[in-house]
Specification:
By secondary structure, the protein is an alpha+beta fold. It contains 5 helices and 12 strands.
Length: 214
Amino acid sequence: MQSYTISRKQAFKGLSSLVTQARLIVTMASKTSGSTPTTNVQAALCVLIPEDTVCFADIQDIRSKHDKAFVRWPPHVNLIFPYLHDVEPTSELLQVLQDFDPFEIEVSNEPSHFKQRNGNTVHLKPDSGGVLEKIQGDVCKALNVTNKRDFHPHLTLAQFAKADTINGEMNIAKLIGKPFKFECNQLTILIREKDTPFRVHKTLPLGKKQDNTT
């Protein structure tokens, strides 16, 4: 039986060839399936709470006292955050939004919270009968965005230490009083520069009759 001896140089050359082929396969797969767009923490796609909504003033009063992001964010429900580096709406996004008519959102008056390392984030849950979840899923698909976690729409109001969360939620429930509703007839792209607050970049109307963006 004949034996073979492979030098280090030959082995390295063979390994380099395999790596190159693997990279080529990944590149071809990305082009075939569509590459994932890069995201931008300075942008968000969301539903803004209209200023004429019942409880808007109460929401802002609560946030001004207990939400560390009060200055940075208007009251909102995020659909995609971070959003895309290219914040201009694509034809695919606009097509998705034309498939949805304006709809009603009812916001619960019973606060919930997300557990976090140094405390809890208190929020209210918006109920749209599943429309928000459907829009978010369709938009992610159209933009080739992958959710890193399950989508749970929420309106953030406050952050409390763990020991203060229950009392905080009870006080918020008293201030909100009862569930409130508003019509969602558009989505909004928010952007910001460095440490400035988020501002409206584009409003994207829902429905085929509302095909203009501002």
